[in-house]
């Protein structure tokens, strides 16, 4: 079965937007990865094409149950509904804390959002830092995080094979890799204010897998200069490429610029699960993808290097990947 594409008309559900482009959003059936070798090879091809051409896609049949997805959104929204005093217990501007709540624009890109960010893999190392309010938070978010770590492993395996790398390439490091959950809470759009909740950026890791309670995510597909709204496809998870996969692929696939706009109908929650290598592990262009015609395009860097880079971004946002490009002029 070929990948299906969502019609462009579905890509303009959020109000106050410039006209949607004729960009098709690939929807990939992940179940095809565990079928016979021929079906799996076709699925890998579809994922590879989506990564190269769009930088993002939706996945369905990913095995994460509707109740686990719903549970994660409920846990996030109930956390944001706890008292200001409780949320303040997690407030910090120290980006190295294992959990951090914030409301203002100290990262250079938040316009109107509050967020809770914490690590999740391996769960037993991090869950002790997570909120105990609502009482179901740890169970619901933990179930979701474990499932997303599994999906990210499947996706990375397919993406790396699509790049021509060996099966199981980096597998062990990915299993022990960083999983960073960003829970975002945006107010409803009010016609006086700015419509952007989170300004244009790309994510640092290999992959981001995003769950949104209602539309608001916009992406800038490669080679286009327009924002395109990502609709909420029932049961689907949205996947996009981060800076470190651009580096690993030596620029064969590019990280995706995206932003969040405020929803005119309701307050909105999104949960971004960002997946990468362990914190101190350097990501460099894969040797297999570097040759005379394709010299190394990016410097190596780790998640720790990304954290060191962040403070320079506060007054003048720059994408991490831009800071890694080797100038060959
Ligand atoms: O809220 C969204 O849709 C996007 C969130 C996001 O880009 C992020 O957390 O990095
Ligand atoms: Fe993001």
Describe this structure in words.
The structure is a single chain. This protein has helices at residues 37-53, 66-80, 84-88, 123-126, 137-162, 171-175, 243-248, 303-309, 320-324, and strands at residues 4-6, 25-29, 56-60, 99-102, 114-119, 179-186, 196-201, 207-212, 217-220, 228-229, 237-241, 257-261, 268-275. The protein starts with a strand and ends in a 5-residue tail after the last helix. Helices cover 27% and strands 20% of the residues. It has a nine-stranded mixed β-sheet. It has a single domain (25-323), classed as Sandwich (Jelly Rolls). It has 329 residues and is an alpha+beta fold. Bound molecules: 2-oxoglutaric acid (AKG) and fe (ii) ion (FE2). Fe (ii) ion (FE2) binds at residues 201, 203, 208, 258, 272. Fe (ii) ion is lined by residues 201, 203, 208, 258, 272.
Please outline what is shown here.
The chain has 329 residues and is α+β, with helices and mostly antiparallel strands.
